[in-house]
Amino acid sequence: MTKGGPERHCVKLFTDGACIPNPGPGGWAFILKHVSTGRSKESSGGEHGSTNNRMEIMAVIRGLEALKQACDVELFSDSDYVVSAITDWMRRWKRFGWKKSPKSTKPLKNADLWIRLDKALEPHRVTAKWIRGHIGHPENERCDELANSAAVQIAQTTPPPPVDLVEANVVEKPYSGSLFDKGE
To answer: Is 63 among the catalytic positions?
Structure first.
C-alpha cells in the first residue's frame, strides 16, 4: 500500500491522431506499456468527418479508457494542444463551464471530447509529456503508423448519413390523462 490507497500500477501511454485530409477521415492510436512487466497493448480506430486535433484527443481518451484500474500514467503525445490542455487549460475550461473564459459566448472547440477526457483522467495520476513527432521515437512512430492506417481504412468506407437534428428531436405531447392518444 502507498500513502493514499492501494499501490498503483505504472504505465506509459503513447498516443497519436491523424486525418487525411484535415478535416476528413480520421484515425487515432495508442500503445500502453506496463512498466514493471513490460507487457503492452496497442489499439487504433477512427471516424468520418473528423480533425487531427479530435483524433489526438480521442487517442488519449481511448488509451485511458482501456485501463481497468487506477494507474500512474506517463502520457507521451506529439500534440502540444493535448499536452497543454491536460497540464494547464482543462482546469480553467472546466471551471468556466467548458468555455475558454467566463465571459465567452462561444462554445469551446471539441468540448464533447474534453469532457470525456476529463472523466477518463479522474481515476488516474497522469503526467503528460510532449515529444517531438517524426524523429524516430519507436512508440510515436508506431502510433503514427496505426493512426494513419486507421484513417485510410475509414476513408475507404461509406460515411454514415448525416443526422437531421430536426427530425431526430422528439417532441413529447403533454400528458392527457390516458396512457395512449385515441387512435394509437
So the answer is: no
